[in-house]
Amino acid sequence: MNSPEVISANPLLGVSLHAAGALCAAFCYTPQKKVRGWSWQTYWVTQALICWLVLPIVGAWLTVPHLVQVLSEAPPSAMLKAFFLGALYGVGGTAFGITIRYLGFSLTYAIAIGISCVLGTILPPLVHGQLDAIFGKMGSGWVMAGMGVGALGIFCSGIAGRWKELDLAKDHQDIGTFSLRKGLPLCVLAGVLSAVYGFALDQGQPIAEIAAKYGAGVFQGNVIYIFSNSGALLTTSLYCLFLALRHRSFGEFVELPAGEERAALPINFAMALLTGCLWYSQFLFYGLGHVHMGSYKFTSWAIHMIMLVLFSTLAGLLFREWHACKSRTWIMLGFAIAILILAVSALTYGNYLGTPS
Q1: Which residues, 6 or more positions from 327, have their beta carbon under 8 angstroms from its beta carbon?
Q2: What is the torsion angle, in degrees rounded to the nearest 10, for the CA atoms of residue 181, residue 185, residue 188 and residue 194?
Q3: pLDDT in tens, 61-71
């Protein structure tokens, strides 16, 4: 067994790596637009098998030396916690998808991600009883301000997105399914359970520490994904199985309806593969960034969530999704982007101040 590599704190590098992960996350569902002839559950379970089963195993095998030995020495309790919390995250993803029917994508995204940003960041130090010690350090005020401003930016982004949906609707019948009464409880549930994924990574840290002893270095966190992601796969697959049975869509894996869509089957699998690779890449970079964050490592989740919303918004501009919006929507969008950038800057500066010289 090797001595664990000492990884120096470098918040600027850590935030840069988080940015790369958030960029992957912002574009990970773009390939879905090219999918033809598949129901949602067929596409979803295919990309989930890639990002929640295949890639975590392959990634850990390639980057964690003596993986079998690491797994044999890792605490079973940490494995079970990471798996169970990952399963809850999978339930949150399902709730997120259902909520979109009632609140639309933008409001669902803003509320759920906002809750996840705050709760997923505060939960690990709260459970470990470290909040008082953390907030007594230099830079803690900037960190708290960054989290608060980030939550505001996410909310403003959601408002801008909702206004965009209204601006682009051909008529108000398109939004007739909107129901705050039905959607808000589901959205809160989605946000809370999405935050659990960050906590799953925290609870799986003892596994990463064993990997570090065997020389995994900055890739030590990759071993946690074997458990957190497989948990998410379990609950998501059960829901997809239910939908497949209900809609009799199993045949879509091997044959599509006659016509032009018949040739789309290889493309569908390729797009699902690309989606899975992008989704997994976000947490590959997340782990690389997290180990460099220094005294305020717990802010990794907030930085990731805020940057995810920021880059998703910028991606929408790149794909001209906002070009036909009214002026008030553009003003809110610009305001949201500015606030999100300010939040990331505050969190970065707080981490910089809290890093020992």
Answers
A1: none
A2: -130
A3: 999 999 999 99
